[in-house]
Amino acid sequence: MTHVLVTGASGFVGQQVVRALIDRGHTVVALTHHAELPKSMRGQVGVTGVQGDVGKPETLRAAMSGIDTVIHLVGIIREFPGQGITFQKLHHEATVNVVDAAKAAGLRRYIHMSALGTRADAKSGYHQTKWTAEEYVRASGLDFTIFRPSLIYGIGDGFTSTMVPLAKAPFFPVIAGGQTKAQPIAIADVAAGFAKAIDMPQTIGQTYDVTGPETFTYKEIYRHIAEALGRPFRPLNIPVWAVTPQAMLLQYQPWFPLTMNQLTMLAENNTGDQETYAQVFGIDRTRFVEGLAFLHPKK
Questions:
Q1: 3-class SS letters over the chain
Q2: pTM of the entire predicted model
Q3: What domains appear along the chain, each with residue ranges and CATH number?
Q4: Considering only CA atoms, which of 57, 55, 207 is closest in space to residue 134?
């Protein structure tokens, strides 16, 4: 049994990772901003909470006490600089704080969530800061494993949930024809890898692309989502130039669905190694259409 500290435990990925860890017999300490555990975890056997903040290094020292492994999941998909929510702070600086705290506590095992498409010459701020965080992890001297998930979907995700109202509209807006590609992966298939890696020393020092078993264009992804909702798919092509001014002006408004950073990423294929992750971790990944069953209209 391993005692695992999970940052970002209350998030979409975090909650599933916590469940997967418990199912494998580990105990979990969830790093939380508040003294109490999130409602979804209260009363759950094998989970305790510790108050801390990845942006405040001094709060992480106590959180590392009695821990064997750290799983660092904190990340954001869009920035709100006015609130101090930036990629630099939540990706790079947070990782530096967690890694340094783990080293100071004498911990060795560290598992890190990055993102597919992360690379040294990335164009988006999202991927740039994910890369610098990875580089810090690689240079840390810890026994690390890095995961780079593709689009993660499931109940409560930040992807299909934003597509639902669009699918219910008369026309489904598709930026630039939706011809770039992605490899969406079910949340349970992602969480399984994090939980299994703890007991797999052969994964130390490795970086894995975490992708679904199929490759789709974004237009095909949108069509599958519409069909899962029982809606006809009527795509409406939106040129990039038509949405760029609005994105520039409104990207820091929570209600506006698109940012300049996201436009940059939508222009790139989000694809990677499609087989190694499944083979190494023995995961029979869910096919996309089957994984969208949670969207089916209730009868």
A1: CCEEEEECCCCHHHHHHHHHHHHCCCEEEEEECCCCCCHHHCCCCCEEEEECCCCCHHHHHHHCCCCCEEEECCCCCCCEHHHCECHHHHHHHHHHHHHHHHHHCCCCEEEEECCCCCCCCCCCHHHHHHHHHHHHHHCCCCEEEEEEECCEECCCCCCHHHHHHHHCCCCEEEEHHHCCEECCEEHHHHHHHHHHHCCCHHHCCEEEEECCCCCEEHHHHHHHHHHHCCCCCCEEEECHHHHHHHHHHHCCCCCCCCCHHHHHHHCCCECCCCCHHHHHHCCCCCCHHHHHHHHCCCC
A2: 0.96
A3: 3-153+184-212+271-285 (3.40.50.720)
A4: 207
- How does pLDDT run across 203-234, given as a tens digit for each residue? 999 999 999 999 999 999 999 999 999 999 99
- List, for residues 92-103, the tens digit of each pLDDT value: 999 999 999 999
